Amino acid sequence: MRYGSVCSGAAAMPIEEHALRSWQRPFLKWAGGKYSLLPELDRLIPAGKRLIEPFVGGGSVFLNSDKHEYFLLADINADLINLYQMLAVVPDSVIAEAMKAFRHLNDAENYTVIREAFNAWQLNAIERAAAFLYLNR
C-alpha cells in the first residue's frame, strides 16, 4: 500500500454551525464514495490534530473535514495517491496539464491518446496525475 502526503487543513467549526453545514462534493467520482455518509461520519469522527484516511478514494471525508489540521491519505491505487501528492506539491502544474486534456473533453481521439499514454507509462508524475484526473471524470 502507498501512503500519501500530509496536507494542511482548517480549524474546527463551532457545533451550532454544524447543522447549517453544506458539504463539498469531491472532484473525483469514486466507487464506494462516502459523500452521502458525510453528516454521520462527521458526527462520529473525533476532532484531532491529524485525520488518517486509509481508503481516501474521492476524498469526501478529508475535503470536508474542518476538525483536523493535517491529513494522512492512503489508498491502494498508486495513481490516486500520485494525484493527491501532485496537487499538494505542484497544483498549478497539474491544473495546467489537466486544462490541456479537458480542452477536448468530448473528443474521442484525444481521450484515446491520453489513455494510451497513461497505460504505456509514458508520462511523468505531473502529466500522469492530470491524465488520471481526466480519465476518471
TrEMBL record:
Enzyme Commission numbers on file: 2.1.1.72
Swiss-Prot/TrEMBL GO biological process terms: DNA restriction-modification system; methylation; mismatch repair
InterPro entries: Ade_MeTrfase_dom_2, MeTrfase_D12, SAM-dependent_MTases_sf
Keywords: Methyltransferase, S-adenosyl-L-methionine, Transferase
Signal peptide (residue range): none
Keyword field contains rRNA processing: no
Pfam families: MethyltransfD12 (PF02086)
GO molecular function, one term: site-specific DNA-methyltransferase (adenine-specific) activity
Catalytic reaction list: a 2'-deoxyadenosine in DNA + S-adenosyl-L-methionine = an N(6)-methyl-2'-deoxyadenosine in DNA + S-adenosyl-L-homocysteine + H(+)
Gene3D superfamilies given in the database record: Adenine-specific Methyltransferase, Domain 2, Vaccinia Virus protein VP39
Sequence similarity: Belongs to the N(4)/N(6)-methyltransferase family.
Record protein name field: site-specific DNA-methyltransferase (adenine-specific)
